[in-house]
Structure formats: C-alpha cells, structure tokens
C-alpha cells in the first residue's frame, strides 16, 4: 500500500488530528454507507409497497442519474461557494431527502427523494477529501489514511447497517442515515473553520469541453459499460438471492441476511481498492490490469447467470465480484487522472458523470429484462456490458498508451482515485 509511510511524521500523528478532521471523517463514513445502505431492503420495499423489482431498483437509478449529472457541475459549484459551503450543502440535502424517503408511503416518492439524496451525495463526495486535507494539522499523509479508512468503513458497513435497521422496518435505514448525517452536519458547522483561501473559479462548461479529450472519453465510455456489471451485481442481486434462498427452504431470509452478504462484498471492494490495486498496477501496468479485471468479472457474472438458482454460487459470486470491482474502480480512476493534463477536479467530474450514467441505466434495464427473460438475463446483460467495456478500451488503446508511463503517485493522487472510483 503506497499510502502508508511508517517512518513519517504524518503516520505517527494519525490519531492526533483536529476535531474538525474527525467530524468530517465521521460524515464520510455515513455518506459512503449510502452506497450499499438501500441494497438489503429492496425486496422489503418491493413487498410492502406493492412495487415490482423493476420499480424498486429505480431507487438506484434516480440516485445515480442525479449524482452523475451533478458531477458535471460540482467543480464549478465548489469554486463559487467554497469547499465548506459545498460540503455543508451536500450534507443538508442528504439529511432532508433521506428523512423524506423514510417517511414516504409509495415507491414513486422514494425514487424521487433518492434523486435529491444523490445530488447531496455528489456535492459532498466532490469536496470531502479536500476538506479533510485542508483541516489536517498532523500531516497530510495521516489525514489521507484516515479518510480512506472512513471510506472503506462506510462501504463495508453500509449494507450491514441497512440490513440491521431494515430487519426492523424498511424505513429504518433512511431515518438512521438522516439522524447520523445530521449529527455530522452539526459537528462540521461547529468545528470546521472556513478556509482562508478562495478557490480558483472553474468555468461553467469546463467538464463538457473536457469530453473533447479522446483519452478521457475512451475511459468514460469504458466505465459506463463496466458499470452495467457493477450495478447489476449490487442492485439486482438481492432479488435472485431471495428467490434462491426460498427455493432451498430458507424462509427466514431478508434484510439482515442480505446485509451480511453485501457487507462481505463491501469489505472485499474496500480492501482491494486500497491495498491490491496499487500492487497490481506496479507489477503489470494499468491497461493489463483493466483488461484482466473486466474479463474476470465477466466470467464471475456468467457463472452467476448459469447457476442463478444456487444460493451458494450467488453469494460466492457477489463477494468475489467485490474483490474485482475494488481493483477496477481504483485503476480506472487512476487512469483518468493520468490520461489528461486537465485540472484534476474537471477530469474526475467529467469521468464520474459519464460513468454514473451506466450505473443509472443498469438497474432500470435489469428489472424489465428479468421479468421478460428470467432471473439469469440481467447477469448476461452485465457480461455483455463488461465485454463492451473491454472492446472500447482496446479500440481506443492508442489514446491510452501513456497511462502506464508514470505509475508513481503521490498519496493525494491515489486517495483521489480511490475516492472517485468507490463513490
């Protein structure tokens, strides 16, 4: 892991951060919980609100569609109202819309409120790392390690908390998020000072002009198709898991069990994104790692499609898939950062906007395809998306030839890659 420097003053003072840093780190844990928090309660929402699986999965579509769209503008917003203003606006939106979703009585209302939640999450994610680094007084490296620990903890525990609260009521995860994020918001307001320096303004259309860069466009389109695999695994899998469990006579299979399974998925993703991805890229280069991970994910999803009625195969495929996804997320975003000479905030915002479009479309298609062609069909759709991603990257390989030339990254660069990749 390239971020740890045991002999440095930064790592020695890892736990000696100002209270403001701990407040933002706490908010980071809760925000990243939101990625998998809803996953274990999708079947419960479907049953209790009379929604089809396709309708329930639109909770991911609305969230990701607005997150992706907002990413095109977050660098412009933060350069106008400042890092702290953007951070607090994002947190406030999450609190409001998470609470409204918990109080809703229809799946259509929850879908709409999840869109507002996605807007808040985009604003928060785009500024959280900069906020922690700017507030740190015990060394930048230590602050970054703390931030990545919060990110990994949030991704891994989101499904676990969602399962625990969801076993009581499907409303629990929404209200729990609202309460915890409200605590984080108050702590940041009280403890985080306003930065003295005003950020340089970013032009309104900077992210759209960035699409002219062939390397960035190639990686963005590759990520769009890759996200079909990612979000079929995450958003669709709870439904065949429940079906397979009931077919095997396991009647007590609900939010709690799903939370445990996707906690394993989140742990695998968090560990490989931080620890394994840097080792693989240093040994084999980014392009080879991307091709290999996409191929392995396609094989994993194909096996899940063939054995969609086997609970053991589905559980294993989900957890193993998390290992591959963690590497993919980090390496793809590292490649984006290396591929262009655009400002990092502009490049990452543009890439995220394209990428999340795939994440928004995958759940919307998966439910309809499953209803029409059976439980295995969405996994085959995911395989097709992953193969298309390989095709895009191979076709545009001449635009990506330079991404392996400079593999040595600063801790801040690697942390940014992990952040955008996992978020």
UniProtKB/TrEMBL annotation:
Principal cellular location given in the protein's record: membrane
Gene3D superfamilies xrefs? MFS general substrate transporter like domains
InterPro entries the UniProt entry points to: MFS, MFS_dom, MFS_trans_sf, Tet-R_TetA/multi-R_MdtG-like, YfmO-like
Which residues are in the Major facilitator superfamily (MFS) profile domain? 20-401
Q: Which UniProt keywords apply?
A: Membrane, Transmembrane, Transmembrane helix
Topology in the lipid bilayer: Multi-pass membrane protein
Query: Where, by residue number, does the polypeptide cross the bilayer?
Result: 20-42, 54-73, 85-103, 115-137, 144-168, 174-193, 214-236, 256-277, 289-306, 312-332, 353-373, 379-396
Superkingdom of origin: Bacteria
Return the Pfam families for the record: MFS_1
Location(s), subcellular = Cell membrane
Name of the protein described by the UniProt record:
MFS family permease
Organism name: Microlunatus panaciterrae
